[in-house]
# Entry
Amino acid sequence: MHPQTLARSLAATTASAALIAATLVAAGFAASPAATAAELPPPPTGVVYASDVPWSSMTNGWGPAELDMSNGGQALADANRAPLTIGGTVYAKGLGTHAASSITYNLGGQCRQFLAQVGVDDTQGDRGRVDFRVLVDGVERFAGERKGTDGALPVNVDLRGGTTLQMKVEAGPEGNGNDHADWADAKINCSDAFLAAPLRIEGSAGTNLNSLVPGTPATVVVRDLQPLSPVSLSLRGENVADAVADATGVATITFVVPAGAAGGTTELVATGTGPFDVATTGRIGALIVQISDAKFYVDCSAATPGDGSQASPFNSIAQVNGYGAFNAGESVLFRAGTDCTGALTPAGTGVADHPITLSAYGDGAKPTINGNGAVAAIQITNASHWTVSGLRVVNPSDTPVRRVGILFENSGTAQTAGIVVTGNHVEDVAGWRNKATNGAGFAQSAGIMVRTWGKGSVDGITITDNEVNDTAGGGVKISAPDTTERYNTKVYVARNKIHDVGGDAIVIHNSDAPLIEYNSGLNLGQGAHPYEGGNFAGMWPYNSKNPVFQFNVVGNSSTSVYDSTAWDCDMKIVGTCLFQYNYSYGNAGGFYLNCVSNCGGGSTAANVVLRYNIAQDDCRLGGSSSGTGKHYIYNNTFYCPSRVFLDDMTGPREVRNNLFVAPGGGLKTVSAVYANNAYFGGILPPVGETGSVLDDPRLVAGGSGQTSLSVPGYRLLSGSPLLGAGVRINDDGGRDFFGNPTSGAASLPNIGAYQGPGVAPAALPFGSLVNQTSVANAANPRNGAVTADRRTFSEEALAEAGLGSGERYSAFGVSSVWHPTAVGTPDTLKAAGQEVLVSGKGRTLLVTGFSTGNVSSGVATVHFTNGQKRDVVLSLPNCLSGVPSDTSVVVASSAYHQRHTQAYIGGPSTVVRVDEPARVFATKIDIPPAFEVSSVTLPQGSALVDEGLNIMDIAVGNLPVGLG
# Structure
């Protein structure tokens, strides 16, 4: 009996381990995973599989090498073994090993050829990396690297004259984890003739063999030919092209798909000469598509199934899935206002200018596709040129797992193309919430996802004008493993409204020059499926080349372990990571996370440019990097009235022309250059900076940004010391945040994100002047502050006290609306001499708000439409200790308020419920008869969080009857 077979036969019995070991020794082998024959086995004869003849010696990195099975556990014939599988292909014969491994065979000088298909076994997923080597009498005849994402690599080695064959597998520098290495279909040829090895065929980077169009060109690459030998290509038995291999045995063949070719599956066959002058062939499947403008209608409210016509529509997802492959140019249309339940997994592939479309027909609300807890509500796999538009997509479940709303997957090695997802509403997707407990499940959960596996990539991803909310894991993700070898191209993600999702807003993996613009990501980590553990950030690239993020908004993100920043340049970036013209506010982790060199775990040559961004209450830099790559941070405006500036970032940097407004904090000086930055409010410049400015920046209305890119308050007033106080920077993008030109200006640039001329002071509406966030909710209690120790009102507690957001309230005969803006955005005007436009008629000017610290009153000036003005004392009692007076009343007294004990991030223990009342007051100022208020100039004070008057509303009313 063959010694390997004997060992496995014994392991399958109930014999004791001692008996197995004794029998192995008796057969001439030491105990596995190392075995050496006591006597040299005879050389093979004829053509034999390596697994069918005895080896001379064997060592293996994890248990024994396996015959005709993948490497399993450490025991003989253990249950962890599986059929040999590489790249989805199952092989009946071969050897399963684990690095480091060496198997030796006696050839006796009588053999001719060794053939095999080698690779990392599919049981390891996309992990593992090994080096295969074949040596004959100690001389290397073959070497090849394989990763878990690779398909099989052919081996064809000349054995003539050799006495010893050695098959080695070595681990890479990262160690031998997951290095299950297969010698699949391994044959030793000791006959009188060489055997033919099949040729390999694959589509070129611009050709998708699953979408061949009659009358159009396509290109394939044929490998493993005899160098400089001819090769022919046929389709359905007809020759379509000829070529000659290059000096490495590779031929690139361009052909035209016959104009009259019928649609359907087919096969391309290459015929040529392989190594050792042996005639051989290679085959690969292909799909010829037909172009059609047919429309298929789906009405899930219809009582009976139809034929897909508008008069007799399909009435279920099952009918659509069961139809078969749709042709290029066809549309599947769902009736507006209807609900369809089930995972929609249509087949077929479109071509350029003729996509297959999923959309709606009829009038009414978007039709709903309800995945009902499937992996995805809509899933399209290994197909090109599909458009999904105008649908409402949900995928609810009571059990969170990996789950997506709209999912495109490329699970192969080909390049797909033309993915368009536009104008949809994706919500209620119950994906995985906790990145700490299941990182893969979280990473693969989102509202909209394009996922590539292995070597696959996509040429053309357009995700635009969608609304995504209440989806676990995040909003929009383009995902791929680290080991992907080809970038996605033509990636465009724009104008998507993402809010209340349980993680990242937008994540871009594996893409060349992706452009991400005009998107918003608000209330991240929150919603119906909130984040539960690990980290997330607003918008970020990973394993990409020259990504650009511009004109985006990220705000009010809840806390995570360390991240929760608006922006993040993450690992494996090539070239430059560019964030420009973006606005962020009130994120628990602040402005930016530096993860460009593995979050501090390695060096990088990639640069990061952060320019012309506006950060409101977002004054934290986090993370670290090393290497030759540098951060260029210039012409940003950081305005943080309630939080100190926290510089938690290390790495080389150049920081110029930025405005920093914060009550404290500082910037690191190691590996840093600073010049011409402005500082105000308590933060001071680093030691050694040149050209710094320390005066009031004179912003139009700093802190007044809400949830969009419209932030005119961050322009500079005339007379600002920041005008012309910057230093010139080459290649600065040519424009500022507001669209003003920069490059080529005759004068020096301004400091900050605004490069226009100074703006004349003017009265502004109340909503254009708010500069402080006083109300936070339970979903994100860390946003905002009204005191130096970071206290805020609780939205929930105020509602319990009768003051609900968006609802009307009244005092002294004046009615107004409480908190009309989104919770988590600025809602309060800290009095600092601003002039507020006021409209309305009546005898009472009502000012709603509170005071903090020891300042509860000040002199304000009321301006009237007749040109007169009057100075008045404006008093507002303290929110914690104040009491009403003859001119003030309590609008609401909440039973509790909240305080966060640190400025950025932090676990649950850093948010404290304070069981003491917090009060909102309204005070009245009488208006003389026949006078009409035009504006109010508020008392002087500091716009930063500190003691002073905090005004939440100004209204006019109490008009006597008959004077309206």
Observations:
- The chain is about 5% helix and 40% strand.
- The first helix runs from residue 3 to 11.
